């Protein structure tokens, strides 16, 4: 697992947090549009023509890890259009569509009801969950720190600052803690907003009746935390089939490629000062390239 560079120090919870991160405060309780305050789902998407037909996929539950309530996300069949609506909650806004491949969540920077301003640099995301997947379904939570407007998913990640992501792959019947690091991208942008989205199913392949419960999300801050991405004289050029790495000292260099969850995908020694890395075998997604250049580490985000 590729981790942030962190000094040994006490964990700190001080610093900005996700609003209503314990899901204690709700509105429209008992109706099909009940939602945690500062959070939303498919029933309040930006597509008003579909909201009335969309099933309720987000519920208040008294089965909480702490306090009184937690959020319950449930995948539902939409028989009218023969799709499965993903159980979903976000602190941004949902853009809904009858074609799941065209749906996304987004930060609306022009309306404070659909964004959370954020200027800090947390080290990691923690929370508590229960998961009841159907078949091989996969739940997920993603927290994205960014500047300007953005959406998830998107091919334009140029204003992304950091991301933390956790996937839920197996049945968990008791409240279980998760913890995932934030990966900081090599960017000139400063944090302006934070966008969180959690789902009970696997994106466009969600399976009906999978259920995810979430509670007590926390952003963790350490007393001293170095950003994952650092300034470097090394440059990379990505043409989707290979990455050209420039300005190296090849005598003592090696590279590693990790996916966004921190899994090592490939690693090798670097044999030339200007070195070409094939990425033809990678599936579509976001990756981190880490260069060890004579003991100095540089990290680069790229999209395949």
Your description of this structure?
With 304 residues, the chain is an all-beta fold. The protein has 2 domains: 11-222, Sandwich (Jelly Rolls), CATH 2.60.120.890; 235-303, Immunoglobulin-like (Sandwich). 1% of the residues lie in helices and 43% in strands. The protein is built from 1 helix and 25 strands. The strands form 7 sheets. Strands 1, 4, 5, 11, 15 and 18 form a 6-stranded antiparallel β-sheet that branches. β9 (93-95) and β10 form a beta hairpin. It is elongated. Mean pLDDT is 85; it is low at 1-11 and 223-232.
The tally of strands reads 25
| Amino-to-carboxy terminus distance | 20 Å
Architecture per CATH nomenclature, i.e. the level-2 architecture of the largest domain: Sandwich
How many domain modules? 2
The CATH superfamily of the largest domain is identified as BT2081, beta-jelly-roll domain
Radius of gyration: 20 Å
Q: Helical stretch count?
A: 1
What is the CATH level 1 assignment of the largest domain? Mainly Beta
Average per-residue pLDDT, rounded, comes to: 85
Relative helix content: under 10%
- Computed structural class: mainly beta
Any low-confidence stretches, pLDDT <50, length ≥5?
Answer: 1-11, 223-232
**Global morphology:** elongated
For the sheet with most strands, the description reads: 6 strands, antiparallel
How big a fraction of the residues is strand?
35-45%
Compressed to H and E, one letter per element, the order equals EEEHEEEEEEEEEEEEEEEEEEEEEE
């Amino acid at each position: 697992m590729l981790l942030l560079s962190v000094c040994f120090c006490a964990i700190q919870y001080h610093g900005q947090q996700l609003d209503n991160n314990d899901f204690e405060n709700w509105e429209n309780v008992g109706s099909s549009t009940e939602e945690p305050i500062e959070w939303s789902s498919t029933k309040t998407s930006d597509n008003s023509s579909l909201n009335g037909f969309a099933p309720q996929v987000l519920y208040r539950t008294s089965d909480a890890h702490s306090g009184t309530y937690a959020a319950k996300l449930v995948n539902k069949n939409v028989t009218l259009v023969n799709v499965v609506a993903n159980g979903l909650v976000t602190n941004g806004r949902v853009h809904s569509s009858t074609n799941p491949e065209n749906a996304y969540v987004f930060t609306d920077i022009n309306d404070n009801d659909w964004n959370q301003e954020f200027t800090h640099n947390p080290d990691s995301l923690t929370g508590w969950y229960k998961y009841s997947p159907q078949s091989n379904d996969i739940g997920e939570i993603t927290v994205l720190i960014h500047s300007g407007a953005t959406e998830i998913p998107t091919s334009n990640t140029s204003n992304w600052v950091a991301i933390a992501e956790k996937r839920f792959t197996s049945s968990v019947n008791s409240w279980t803690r998760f913890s995932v690091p934030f990966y900081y991208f090599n960017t000139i942008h400063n944090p302006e907003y934070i966008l969180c989205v959690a789902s009970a199913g696997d994106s466009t392949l969600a399976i009906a009746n999978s259920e995810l419960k979430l509670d007590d999300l926390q952003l963790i801050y350490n007393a001293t935390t170095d950003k994952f991405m650092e300034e470097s004289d090394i440059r990379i050029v990505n043409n989707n089939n290979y990455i050209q790495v420039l300005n190296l000292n090849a005598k003592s260099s090696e590279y590693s490629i990790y996916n966004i969850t921190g899994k090592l995908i490939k690693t090798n020694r670097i044999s030339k000062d200007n070195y070409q890395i094939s990425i033809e075998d990678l599936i579509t997604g976001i990756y981190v390239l880490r260069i060890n250049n004579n003991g100095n580490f540089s990290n680069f985000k790229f999209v395949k």
